Amino acid sequence: MSGEPLLARLPHVVQWGDCDPAGIIFYPTYYRWMDAATWHLFALAGYTAARIRAEQVSLPLVHAECSFVRSPTFGDACVVESSVTRFGGKSFTVQHRIVRNDGSEMASGSEVRVWCRYENGPGSPLRGEPIPEALKALFTAGA
Length: 143
What we know:
By secondary structure, the chain is α+β, with helices and mostly antiparallel strands. The chain has one domain: Thiol Ester Dehydrase, Chain A, CATH 3.10.129. The chain has 3 helices and 8 strands. A 5-stranded antiparallel sheet has the order 1-4-5-6-3.
């Protein structure tokens, strides 16, 4: 075990639809990318969307923030680097860093999510549960 946090790298190319009329990235695009990166990170740890559904777990978002450093434009290649930086009893924080392929930082942000389970299957109320220690270990041991 390396002790290094699990780091996901999710590449993106800025598409025309990601941009505003000025041709620069439209800020909600960062939030879409961060959400996708969180799911990618969990999949790398073995918690694919199929597994999460089968176990009737959900990861609702309760807080998100993003700081915009500079704006990529149409055609720029970027990567979202993501890792879990905090585990609480039932919640956790995922930190994201968006960088252009030349290494320049475009934005950074974070999400706070809660580990929940459906009471009686999807569509029924969610209840927060303690995050399993085995799950935490997947993200903190460089799985």
